[in-house]
Amino acid sequence: MAAALACVALTGLVACVSSVSPSGEPWPAADLAPPSHADNPPTPVKIELGRRLFYDADLSWDGTVSCATCHEQKRGFTDPNKTRQGFDGAPGERNIQTLANVAWFNSLTWGGPHVDTLEHQALIPIEGFVPVEMGFGGKAEGALAQRLKGKACYPSLFRAAFPERNGELSIDTIVMALSVFQRELVSLDAPYDRYRRGEANAISAQAKRGAALFESKQCVSCHAGPHFTDAALPGRTPYEAFHMLAPPAAGKDAGLQRITQKAEDTGKFRTPGLRNVALSAPYMHNGEVATLPDAIRHHFAVAGKQSDPRLKQTLNDAEVADLIAFLEALTDQTFIKNPAFALPKPGCPVPEDDAKPSSAR
Ligand code: HEC
Ligand code: HEC
User: Fold this and answer.
1) N-terminal to C-terminal alpha carbon distance within the chain
2) Can you give the pLDDT at residue 87?
3) Domain map of the chain by residue range?
4) Which protein residue has the closest C-alpha to ligand 1 atom 1?
5) Per-residue pLDDT tens digits for 259-275
6) Which of 97, 115, 227, 258 is the best mutation target for the ligand 1 pocket, counting ligand atoms within 8 Å of the beta carbon and taking the most?
7) Does residue 222 have a pLDDT over 50?
8) Nearest to 50 by CA among 103, 111, 107
9) Does residue 178's CB lie within 6 angstroms of at least one atom of ligand 1?
10) How far is 173 from 178, CA to CA, in rounded Å?
């Protein structure tokens, strides 16, 4: 009995040591569950359906582009282009964003304080006109649902994933499945995470100096918390995560101002998360910054033209190098290589014969 108690106490001590950082703040475990939405709870089959949809080019009008074409797992769910041409050949305007830990973000995209759920966001690439990304331009409800109904596996998968809706295959259930898959995209196993959970040697001495600079230079006030963005801080409004690093050139993307029409919002963009940022070049909302050192320097390039005191600092080359070592320690190989997030294997994950035709169909 005494031995069992000691063991419990010891286990408690070990758990406590491994979940508390050197500075004493709690850091989440690698398997922290993403927040789920009560009206769209995750189930294994719904997540699998979402993954199939994410990798399916039939979600674009001409069958050439899937979500994964732009959001590649090996690059932290981004692609190497500055921006990507729209489906219709129109020049893209914004850099593709990483999808790591999006479940926690209170707004989505570089400039969408009103885009507050993944369910809402997923409609933008499929249906959107500006830019035309996947080309359905408002016609997805009929055309896309009809197309998927005629494909192998989907009718049975929708029946298994949405029994309460009689297996409804519609734009609603398509975005619901995409959203539960994206909420699974949790990246919390980078070397820096292991360091914060108590593994003292998980990162280099240089990365440790970079981590200290990340705090002292106040990077952490915008790239805050375990998801490295103030858009994932509890209790904040979406607008609080928008900041201007450099005023836009005339006629260029005005960011938040486009939505609010307020002059003071010109050039403000939502703080991006920095997980796997070493894999996601080029940088910034327009992809105009090619390298990580330049991405860091870009913050301070126009000090004087903007009022935020956090952006009026100076950084020497050694400090930039230390910060890069820190940012590289945010590369999470477990996430990049997780087979559960990769292209699904061919074949149906649920037997097609077992799926009962729904009375609603
Ligand atoms: C043609 C390339 C392209 C395709 C295809 C595409 N995206 Fe994106 N994605 C982008 C770009 C560019 C942004 C940034 C958009 C902006 O800020 O206006 C983005 C942003 C996002 C975000 C916001 C991430 C954040 O940090 O706020 C999510 C979520 C997302 N995409 C999911 C999807 C899903 C789901 C699909 C498939 C239905 C998809 N994307 C298809 C290019 C693409
Ligand atoms: C005042 C808030 C704020 C502070 C302080 C701040 N950042 Fe940023 N950071 C942003 C915003 C906003 C963007 C995106 C700006 C854009 O696209 O125009 C960004 C972009 C980045 C990017 C590019 C990410 C990508 O995916 O394109 C990196 C890297 C980065 N910041 C690192 C840092 C480092 C390191 C520091 C400290 C030296 C720092 N930031 C301080 C708000 C901030």
Assistant:
1) 61
2) 64
3) 44-186, 191-336
4) 133
5) 999 999 999 999 999 99
6) 97
7) yes
8) 103
9) yes
10) 9
212 Cα: distance to centroid of ligand 1 (angstroms)? 32
Which of 133, 182, 268 has most ligand 1 atoms within 8 Å of its beta carbon, as the pocket-test mutant? Answer: 133
Ligand 1 centre and the CA of 343: distance in Å? 17
Report whether residue 117 contacts ligand 2, using a CB cutoff of 6 Å: no
CATH superfamily entry for domain 191-336: Cytochrome c-like domain (1.10.760.10)
Name the region of 280 (left: φ>0; alpha: ψ -120 to 50; beta: rest). alpha
166: helix, coil or strand?
Answer: coil
CATH for 44-186 (1.10.357.10, 1.10.760.10, 3.40.50.2000, 1.20.1070.10)? 1.10.760.10
Ligand 2 in reach of 223 Cβ (< 6 A): yes
Q: Can you tell me which atom of ligand 2 is nearest the CA of 270? A: 12
Query: What are the b/e assignments for 174-184, b being 16+ CB within 10 Å?
Result: bbbbbbbbbbb
Domain 44-186 and domain 191-336, same fold? Reply is yes
- For the full predicted model, state whether its pTM sits above 0.85: yes
What is the reported pLDDT for 245? 92
- Report, as an integer, the average pLDDT of 278-301: 95
